[in-house]
Amino acid sequence: MASAQFCAALRQSRRCARLELHSSLLSSQLSPQCRFTSTTAVPNTEPPAQSSESTVQEKEKTKITRRLTKPKRMTYGRVIEGMESGPLSKQSKVQLPHMDTWRKVFHMTKDVGKRVSLRNPDTAKMLAESFVPEGSRDKVVIEASPGPGQLTRALLDLPKERIKKLIVLEPVSQYLEYLKPLENIDERVKVLPLPGHSWSSYTKLLEMGLLSDVEKTDWSQVHPHLTFIMTMAPFVDGEQLAAQLLRTVPERQWLQQYGRVPMHFILTGRMWERMKAPPSSMPRCKVSVMAQAAAEMYEAIPYDFLQPYSDHFHPDRHNTYELKYGDLDLRRLGIPLTSASFIPLEHPKIETGDLDIWDYCVRKLFVQKATPLEKCITALGPGATNLLPKLDDPDKPEDKVDLKKTPRGLDMEEWSRVVRVFKSWPFRPEDLGIGTLFNPHQHNR
């Protein structure tokens, strides 16, 4: 009972104390006193304080002033090393940002994510020296898909007499911001927002007259003034494009209409292994045969000079789990890349007009690439076994082929003999398109 009365008295005293404090604050005309001062009344000699309303207005005014004068926050959270904090002018974009900041500078859009760009300036210098070596004079260089232009700048840093004109094809807008300023400082540069993988882009070059000063040379010599450079996408599209560009050699189409134009690619190590694969090796495939029938090929710089990927290329992205356990997908960003040069052969194995025949024979026989030729030759069409005696005729050693070999084991001379015998066969199929791989009656209802 006593404890209950005590608690009630305590609560009542607290309420009274709060009421007394509130009434004293309202009645006082003085500024709040420090709690350590005396409670004795002191005459007021100071001027009256501002009203509470004017004080609130002053505080709001201060807040607004601070908000207006507060610096805006950077887009990337901090100032990128080596770059100004303010908006970049065109002049400043003549120089590329440091390679370690590329992931922050160049946003990972859909277009950027499907592309590979060289970012290491030292590697770019080595490639430029290889693609346009000492002794070159007045070259017209077409560079496709360069990204923001690390290799482009390395080419411009070469002695000026080597390159007369540099035509750059790049459709990505954020890369163009670092390429377009080069036109203002070097009259040799022409930057076009065109995709390097589109045939129409090269038609537009002709329409614009950018190749009007390029002479057509005799096929007996490598073109001394025209060179093509391209960074391939690390996907199936990039591999297919590399194969298609080599197919222009036998028919002398595209840039090859000007003569034997050298081509230099930055491409996946996987594609390079397939292209250069020798007979009987596991990577040997249709791509190997068609590429070797059209051009001589070699590494522009040693493979190890471009490894690891993250030291040389942008964007640096790969699956760390797959990389650690050895199951890395060899057709995605972050895989090993290499550089290769392709010089069209003076006498291609594929003669002019025979590209479709070669494509048909190689494609059909590689369906059974591990089967001896004497058994898999039926893939060339009904009655193709009649070609076997012609391929094993002792009286015609120029057409003789070892029938025990598999398609993977045939060298380029033996492939030429198979195609030549097939071409002279009067009953060969008329339709040599890819649709003949399938049975036209299997979908009949």
From TrEMBL:
Q: Print the keywords alphabetically.
A: Methyltransferase, RNA-binding, rRNA processing, S-adenosyl-L-methionine, Transferase
Compartment(s)? Mitochondrion
Q: Name one GO cellular component term.
A: mitochondrial matrix
The lineage's top-level taxon is Eukaryota
Q: Which residue windows does the record flag with biased composition (Polar residues)?
A: 37-55
> Which InterPro entries does this one have?
KsgA/Erm, rRNA_Ade_diMease-like_C, SAM-dependent_MTases_sf
Task: Give the UniProt family note.
Answer: Belongs to the class I-like SAM-binding methyltransferase superfamily. rRNA adenine N(6)-methyltransferase family.
Q: State what this protein does.
A: Mitochondrial transcription factor that confers selective promoter recognition on the core subunit of the yeast mitochondrial RNA polymerase. Interacts with DNA in a non-specific manner.
Q: Report what the protein is called.
A: rRNA adenine N(6)-methyltransferase
